[in-house]
């Protein structure tokens, strides 16, 4: 502190500390009580010798029994009703009004009875409650153009005051007086040589009786050399009210329970007329904002208290931690931004959707033609009993249920049918089916990945054709009673190493699998665990595929191929022995779904091709060459029969 | 809730005078369980020296410290104390991104902190708060072998918290040091 000697004292400004609780209380007060009334509201601030020039702003009046460890500053909140009102407010007038109030307190000496009138402050705000944004500006008023105070001497307080005697007396003073007395008080030696702690109103007695006294000011500081704002206002009080030309103050920086004054500093000060002292007193004290400029602050608390945003950040946290802690190269953005189309909103569809949401996918569209049935809710996790009673369409119901789980989800459902081979389209249904087909095609165009989760073989044919032609990621999952299949279809970009599709191992085009079947043969009857396993693996395969630099064109890869490990083609699992197989196969040139002739024909003729393929049962097999393969197969079979007839004769 | 001879509430009550002597604002709140609410200012980690500038001839402006709101509660599932906190820069801007929080910590603590921190519902206030995951705390207590009946139960745990969050939690440690001296 020696560096200050001979220099004019400078002061540290206070910083407001306003937390979410304050704004929440203000919001509640505004909505429930204040409404449009712009009358001032009582608030208070708390600080102590360790609060490093920060003052915590608290809503409401200071409690009478506030802890003796804190100093209390009484404040006023003025909350504007509109942002315009806030922006256009005359801040100079507000500032001068507070300065006038401070000066009045000094001149009329109400400070003597309530010393903490020297540290009254103002908070001017506008609360945009709906968007959780709060504009505010704090004013800690001080008077400008008062006398300067030159430091004549400075030393540790313990060198001028016996701390072992004074410290307990300070504690006793704080215990017995109310909070208005704590920030400024006097320590004086009376006529009998006894040290006393006195309220500030005893200053005239100390002056008149020429007592040996020190004025204590509770100092919350960041930099040792600079006392804080309360000291400035105290010195203005001494200068204006008592016209003191010199004074001795103690910057009280110890805790009130401390038994020493080791942190506190004694200052011997001499007043010097400020060169601006001929100017009328004006006021300063608006707080600087977060950029260090004189201006209001805007606090956006939506990330802290807006439930929708809380949901967003919390749901991504687990994935972010995965990336921070375990897989730094994990590309979460590509997962989040991939638009997924789920064909089928049944057991597989619900399971896949849930897993996709866990991975951060935020755009899911469902396609399903049926309504929620009473048998669905126990196996299909997005539906409830109420949905059955109200006969909600599955696609839309699943979409809105996802939004209930995660509000920022983009999800929608389409109740359309998928044209299927083996299910002829009658004349009366052509228009409706064509509309459904066009909706389906638009959905394919607008999404990045397709999940084939329907319940029949033939319903997967058209999506396979379209996805292959449009080069969309396609993840296919199918269930048996105790077995399951998950596979990714190949891409034309893989060239001659193109991986196969669901139909590449077939020598017949798909046909109507539900005609003339019993109930147990038409419904997929499957062990409950199969679905959960299949849907989990389907989504994991999809996410791994996204991590590969080649994406849809990625070949079958070993365990180090992606940051998440292997990238197989097909996975088949069997619950009866808990086994799992990884299989790969190339695309079949005569495939009924992904062969080039099929794809090209679809590209050329679109709906006309689909209509012909569905209504002419031989067309697809003829086009892709499967009819020829069948004929060759029949011939080979006949020749074998001939040969085996010979053997039987011989036997 | 009773935990052997000394209840968790009693442990919290023992901390209050220690912390308040060091200027940490403390309040014991009862929200279905005893929770100690704390508030203080902390100087974050920085390589740069504290700078200031003149606001006007008599006033200087120093960049504010970080405001810390914290809560201590007992995790019934993990049977360990749990530390929640909110950080505000410039007195009012909440820090809700992990990288912004860890940037305030000592470089040697950051990786540990990133492993141990999570975000969740604030126990005694609306909104969310950061917390030190109690499964990491469980591991600490298994190693430290401090009994719940020991008066140093919470102080030892605070040392562990400080290892992760230093220098944000320095005032708590200084308060404990003041008490022991």
Automatic annotation (TrEMBL), chain A:
Active-site annotation: 523
One Gene Ontology biological process: autophagosome assembly
One GO cellular component term: phagophore assembly site
Domain THIF-type NAD/FAD binding fold: from-to ranges: 323-549
Domain of life where this protein originates: Eukaryota
UniProt-listed InterPro entries: Atg7 (IPR006285), Atg7_N (IPR032197), Atg7_N_1 (IPR042522), Atg7_N_2 (IPR042523), ThiF/MoeB/HesA (IPR045886), ThiF_NAD_FAD-bd (IPR000594), Ubiquitin-activating_enz (IPR035985)
Record domain Ubiquitin-like modifier-activating enzyme Atg7 N-terminal: where: 9-304
Stretches of the chain forming a coiled coil according to its record: none
Keywords from the named record: Autophagy, Cytoplasm, Protein transport, Transport, Ubl conjugation pathway
GO molecular function: Atg12 activating enzyme activity; Atg8 activating enzyme activity; ATP hydrolysis activity
Cell compartments where the protein resides: Cytoplasm; Preautophagosomal structure
Pfam families in the cross-refs: ATG7_N (PF16420), ThiF (PF00899)
Principal place of residence: cytoplasm
Record text on subunit structure and interactions: Homodimer.
Described function: E1-like activating enzyme involved in the 2 ubiquitin-like systems required for cytoplasm to vacuole transport (Cvt) and autophagy. Activates ATG12 for its conjugation with ATG5 and ATG8 for its conjugation with phosphatidylethanolamine. Both systems are needed for the ATG8 association to Cvt vesicles and autophagosomes membranes. Autophagy is essential for maintenance of amino acid levels and protein synthesis under nitrogen starvation.
Family label: Belongs to the ATG7 family.
Protein name (Swiss-Prot/TrEMBL): Ubiquitin-like modifier-activating enzyme ATG7
Biological classification of the source: Eukaryota, Fungi, Dikarya, Ascomycota, Taphrinomycotina
UniProtKB/TrEMBL annotation, chain B:
Gene3D superfamilies: 3.30.1460.50
Keywords tagged on the record: Autophagy, Protein transport, Transport, Ubl conjugation pathway
Gene Ontology biological process: mitophagy; protein transport
Source superkingdom: Eukaryota
GO MF, one annotated term: ubiquitin-like protein transferase activity
Alphabetized InterPro entries for the sequence: Atg3/Atg10
Extent of the signal sequence: none
DNA-binding listed as a keyword: no
Protein name: Autophagy C terminal domain family protein
